[in-house]
Amino acid sequence: MLQIANKVYFRHGVPLNSTVHRTVLYTNRSFLRDYPDYGPISLPVGELAPSTGTAPISTVTVSITDHMEAVRPDGQQEILIATDGQDLVDDLAFVLSFALNATFSRDHDLVHRLVPDQLDNRRRSAPSNLFRGTFDPRIVVKEDELDDVRALMSQLLALQRPHFEAAMKAIRRVVRARQRVVEDPTTAYTDLVAALESLAKDEPVPAPSWSQLDGAKRKLIDAALEGAEPERSGRVRNAVMAAEHLGLKSRFTQFVLNRVSPAYFRHEAADALRPIRRPDLERAVKLAYDIRSRNVHTLWDMPPEAWVLNDRADTVSHSDLGTMLSLEGLARLARHVIRAYINGAPTGVDTSFDWRANLPGIVRIQLAPQYWIHNDAGFDHKSAANYFRGFIENIVETLAKREKSAADMRKVLARIEALVPGTAGSDPKTIMVAIYALWHQFLDQTHHRPGAEAFLGRHRHVLEAPSMTAFVVSLLLNQIPDWSTEQWESLATQRAADRQRRGAQPIPAAFDAALQAFVAEKVWTDRRVDEAAAYAARAVEELPGNQQLLCWESRFVPATDSPGSGATESDSDTGRTDEPAEVLDLLSLVLGISTQAEQSSPEDAQAEQSSPEDAQAEQSSPEDAQAEQSSPEDAQAEQSSPEDSAGRETAPDSPAAPVAGDPSDGASASA
To answer: Where is the segment annotated Disordered (predicted)?
Structure first.
């Protein structure tokens, strides 16, 4: 946020909205200035006005200006005037805490917990006794320190955006690690290592020599190669060194060592107690990384000897670990290395950076389908799958009468007519034809595209081959294709494998569950009970917690594995019922309808709600709705075959229906 407020990413000549944020920071630093210099302390971003004199905890008023472009790139007035300023002030507090090795925060209680009224050696685990100067009370800021802060901020703000963000993340992690040290010293140590590791991702690492390899590894490999030909031994050793070269630990170590300057061992170490010696540094850095790894992977805690009795020294000698960097020593090393990173990182303006998208307090959410699937501007081969998912969600909600009307997709249909002829047989083509077919099946003829019959006559054959898209279409039309059992199993297995990988076609979860459930029923009829149970389990796990599926699954599971699941006495011999007690209604599953009276076929739903306008006109009062409810027997009697449905006045012909088995042969959505 500091870099955005510095105006480096704004367009030239564009008017700005400028808002001054003022707040109080609590700190263990005091600002004493002679009269000619008395006044606010100017910084590259913002200014500081000391509010109190010398005290264990002082206050300083921060004034920082939040700039925003007043006109958007499209010429419209910007509705966002400013942020709330908290992130801006917090980033300044982080930089001040890092640069001055001090504590600055808006949180009064936090600072009072960390900074004592006076140094108390009796509490050796107190933060002020673990870090030198960071939490010491009554420390006066000198003028040369302020100059150093300004220089650091200027260099930081000049960095290219990716390097600025990386440096700020590392600074925040270092400051927060020190503030949380009392809660968990090992986690604080791990965070200090992580701050440095985050900057090392692009560090080039030279291949190590054999003598630099860990001694324990070297002994094991040398023993294994004893008696081997020299040429083979050399190849093995080179392979081992290449593997070490690629390791994260090697990259981290090299990054740190490359940024330790002579000053670290000279004037910067003048006030340090037991500073690390140059020959010990590499081993201590590797040990720090090992401590981080043990903590992350096994929740290993540092022994108290490593951090309690160190008198704020840079190093600790532990009987098991040897010479290691203490919390203070690692924090001093982290400050030195991060500053070296800032000084050496490339500077300049990153023209690809979208500052508006990086403002704080912005949450991006996925809109409901009805708010975007009508937009033809975003429809193409790549987005077709997402449009199909959104359209299916919208049509399901409409058929189930949870939405009043379907979104108007006629402009998208025009795009489909233009794209499909030039698209070779592929998933995008199948998806586009599926959208087109379902629209013309469920919407009234007044909303059909001219020439829809001819278009579907040329392209609907793509819905004949087994695919997830074709299954969704057939299920919504209540006309399950007459694919072979092997084809159904292949489709279900491939879909389950695709779902394990990123990039699988997005489909509402109920349809994935329905596919696995349908195949479970198919396999069950072949008496392959174990495979049927596996498909049934997949169905339940695609739609976790669904009561309809849970009750249905119980007949595939041995009674001993599913206590109280409703198993009958016939289970005692086989563990499963011989015949399904109830066939799963897949259409009600995908529509989310649980009672039989609420269930209807897609043709009935289309007849009752044929267009967005009709849906609104057909709404009735609660009393009318209650009067129109029928018994399960009436509902069953009113259901009609596809042939009867096609003859209704309000139902169009079914050009979108894929090639399907005759429902009388048992190929229906009810399996």
So the answer is: 557-578, 596-671
Tell me the Ramachandran region of residue 271: left when phi exceeds 0, alpha when psi lies from -120 to 50, beta otherwise. Answer: alpha
CB atoms within 10 A of CB 401: 18
pLDDT at 120: 62
The backbone torsions φ and ψ at residue 16, rounded to the nearest 5 degrees and listed phi first, read: -120, 150
How far apart CA 20 and CA 25 sit, in angstroms, is 16
Q: How many CA atoms lie within 13 A of 264 on its CB side?
A: 24
Tell me the two tokens of residue 332: 């001093």
Reported as a single tens digit per residue, the pLDDT across 528-548 is 989 999 999 999 999 999 999
Q: Among 485, 508, 504, which residue's Cα sits nearest to residue 495?
A: 504
Cα–Cα distance, 572 to 116 (Å, whole number):
72
Task: Give 269-278 contacts, CB < 8 A, sequence gap 24+.
Answer: 269/314, 271/132, 272/132, 272/313, 272/314, 272/329, 272/332, 273/132, 273/311, 273/312, 273/313, 273/314, 274/313, 274/314, 274/315, 275/314, 275/315, 275/329, 276/314, 276/315, 276/323, 276/325, 276/329, 276/333
The candidate with the shortest Cα–Cα distance to 130, out of 311, 303, 273, 272, is: 311
Task: For residues 548 and 584, give the distance between their C-alpha atoms in angstroms, rounded to a whole number.
Answer: 8
What type of residue sits at position 422? G
Closest to 333 in 3D by CA, of 206, 174, 139, 162: 174
Whose tokens are 């995908």? That residue is 590
Hey, is 64 helix, strand or coil? strand
Residue 13's alpha-carbon distances to 7, 70, 71, 528, 669, in angstroms, are 12, 11, 11, 74, 64
CA distance 605 to 614: 12
What whole-number distance in Å separates Cα of residue 521 and Cα of residue 518? 5
d(C-alpha 9, C-alpha 606), whole Å: 53
Cα gap 29→34, rounded to integer Å = 17
**Highest mean predicted confidence (pLDDT) among 35-49, 431-445, 572-586:** 431-445
For residue 90, what are the contacts with CB-CB under 8 A and spacing of at least 6? 106
Q: Residues 259, 337: contact at Cβ < 8 Å? A: yes
Q: What is the pLDDT of residues 361-414, one digit of tens each?
A: 888 888 999 999 999 999 999 999 999 999 999 999 999 999 888 899 999 999
208 band by pLDDT with thresholds 50, 70 and 90: low
Instruction: Say how far apart CA 134 and CA 127 lie, in whole Å.
Output: 8
21: confidence class by pLDDT, cuts 50, 70, 90: very high
pLDDT digits (tens, 9 = 90+) for 554-578: 888 764 454 444 444 444 444 455 5
pLDDT for 574-599, tens place per residue? 445 555 546 789 999 999 986 443 34
Q: At 10, is the secondary structure helix, strand, or coil?
A: coil
Q: How far is CA 460 from CA 439, 444, 452, 453, 456, in A?
A: 13, 20, 11, 10, 5
DSSP label at residue 141: P
pLDDT of residue 207: 58
- Tell me the CA end-to-end span of the chain in Å, nearest whole number: 58
Can you give the residue ranges of every domain in the chain?
2-158
DSSP 8-state class, residue 430? H
DSSP-derived 3-state class of residue 563: coil
Cα 429 to its chain centre, rounded Å, is 30
Enumerate residues 6+ apart whose C-beta is below 8 A from 129: 119, 120, 121, 123, 312
